[in-house]
User: Fold these one by one.
Assistant:
Number 1:
Amino acid sequence: MTNDLEKKTTPALPRFRPNTDVLEREDGFHIFVDMPGVGKDGLSIDLRENELEVRGRAVYPREENAKALHVEFGDGEYVRTFTISDGVDREGIRATLKKGLLELFLPKAARLKPRRIEIQAG
Amino acid sequence: MVIDFSSYYDLPRNMDSFFEELWKPSSLSQRRVAYPPVNISESEGEIIVTSEIPGMDTGDIELTLNEKSLIIRGAKKNEVGNYYRQERPTGSFQRIVNLNVPVQADGIKATMKDGLLRVVLPKARESRPLTISIDAQ
């Protein structure tokens, strides 16, 4: 117990469930995750079987010689897990992080893509 | 005799989580009361306003300085597609930050990085010596 307390001197970042939009377009699924303050170095995306886990650490530099007057947000870790169906082409998953917004693109597996069937004149 | 309390009575972990709660800054409970969340800090010469506005282009955010307040305004657009889940706020937003000190309007700097807006407002030099000319009549 005492050891545990000593470890806590560097407290873990508070965890947040980031706001997320999930939407479908013709080419596949697009997931938008709000991750303000997270840079490329602080982001990790792991795919384990059907679980896609997104983690982002937002650590803001301290304002030097300044005192906080009003605080509504702070350092934190964004964690969110998505379950992926078989209809997703895993090899084709792409992620872009821009302006604190993470966009995940999950293309549909080729067999599920809408396709036109040619009619052969017989 | 071994008594295993663990499933009933997880005291060490309860204590730890209790302490963790204590460590958390209570101010964070204000999180997500208004959009976008704003932090304000003050140094000797500056007022620093930061705000989390992810996914916005700098051109879509409007910053206005009034006599006594800084206004952050903008609109978030909907994405195109068929929504399965929508949690990210959309539509127009506005936050008004009251400034209790006069600021130097021409020295304000605003930057945006990783969805964090940072506005530095230098305080007006109150100690600036004023010379008052006397008109002879």
Number 2:
Amino acid sequence: MHSDSNALNSITTEPGASDADSLFGKVLDLSEHGLFLVDSARKIVLWNEWMAQASSLARGDVIGRTFNEVFPELAGKRVASVIETALDMRTASLLSRSLNKSLFPLFSANGGGERKRIEQSVIVKPIQCDGRNYCLVQITDVTPMVQREEVLRVLAREAEAAQKAAEEISRFKSEFTSTVSHELRTPLTSIRGSLGLVSSGVMGELPLEVNKLVSIACNNTERLLFLINDILDIDKIESGKMDFVIGPVDLMAVLRQALEANQPYGEQYKIRYVLNQVMAGVAVRADTDRLMQVLNNLLSNAAKFSPEGAEVEINVLQNGAMIRVEVKDFGTGIPLQFQSRIFEKFSQADGSDTRKTGGTGLGLSISKAIMEKMGGGIGFETEEGKGTTFYIDICEMAPA
Amino acid sequence: MFEITDIQRDYITEILNISMGSAAAVLSEMVGEEVGLSVPEVAFLPRRVAADQFDLNNSAKMSGVTQSVSGAINGDALLMFPEEKTLTIVRILLGDTVPVESLTEMEQEAMCEIGNIILNAIVSSVANLLQKEIVSSLPRFISGTGSEIYAINTGCEDDLVMFLKVGFGLESQSINGHVTLMLNVPSLREFIAHLDEKINAL
């Protein structure tokens, strides 16, 4: 009565056992998805093996009955209405597992015979064949995905809790460091004052040996104070509490002041600062005190790492839209393996060298943070055995 | 530029808002809370102007749902939100808070369903207006910059699209997104012609 030229046609017109015998019927039965087809009279005309297993409804019990007869509990539910629209309006719909929990009453046999409700994701698609409208319903078992995401959820919550704990510890550490440093600074300041008075001879001439010991004590107190101030600076920067008063700054004036302040330090290392190239009257966008701090750091570093009798060259030049200040030493250069860590906290090329060169290993890290806060940058070029040029780039600004 | 009259605009806005009302009702019932949907604005714009709606540099990430339509009109329908808003919508509707910065596979599927409901409502109101059949495909989740999504620099940036602003009202917050129907020009002309027939019959 009907042509067999079309698989869908043969299935839909000869409901019952014959559809399973066709090649297409066998293919559908092998599918890992639940598949069923509803015709325009709302009758189920195809029901694959997956559906039969999961619903415990044999093909023969379902074919030819309407969707509502097979699933009376779904009457009026969204899935029933999207099947209607697929048939009437030819729109495709998706019913996600998250927004439609346990859509169809489908169960999987679970090893021990216990039947578990299948987590489903459902798509409903219109099909037209020989001028007739059908609606294909495809069900995917997303139980493994649901379980995976449950694990992900648990892991993500744990990670979040761990992160909060880590932040708490870090905050506590930083508060602790800051408090201890403040507490240390006060007595240290008075120790330095007292030692200074003793070593200057105000309290009477000291025997040579004693004077030597007192001056060692003096120098080390000084170093300790520097270290504490640097730690407090780092802490301020990290907690965002360092205040910056940004405005146009006369760069050459600040640089000359920094050179003057570092002159005695340079003499101590027997080096000479040479201001080589200048840009008269140039103004930069900076905080005067913080810029001074950075320049002091670069100038004193250059002195420390220069051979005796050498010069430290300073250049001020235009670098694109920025103004660059270069501080060039003729020291041993920075070893390659240390170059990537140079701006890290407490880093110095050679731990054993610290005693000779002094310093806290915090200076460059502080300078970098300050330059970034001022919208500038810091960097270096180095050649082992020949020397190093540290430079800072600062935004140019119209003078005040 | 493709100009439409105020009457045409009012008419489209009206029918779209009716269909959005029913989409909102479906969503509200699904999630068990009030969901508001509205189309405050309709325009016909070139693709590149549509791509600029969230960000003039087209560098901000957007995400959403697309489905293709064929039949009486041919093209793509898109529902897009700024990426972080998509996250907000899905998480509010699912009532879940996964501390993960991008949508999980299942959340993407849920977003596809939300988009599917909204886009199907719009497409069927257009089909009703034309009194012709429009077949829509399954929804697909997409994300990218405005230029990627609107296929800018592929030679079709001047093609006109029907561009709707969509307001999504959830838990006392209002999230703005947009729906774009990227139709070919004959489809657009036909659409407008049908619109005039309807208006004249009023």
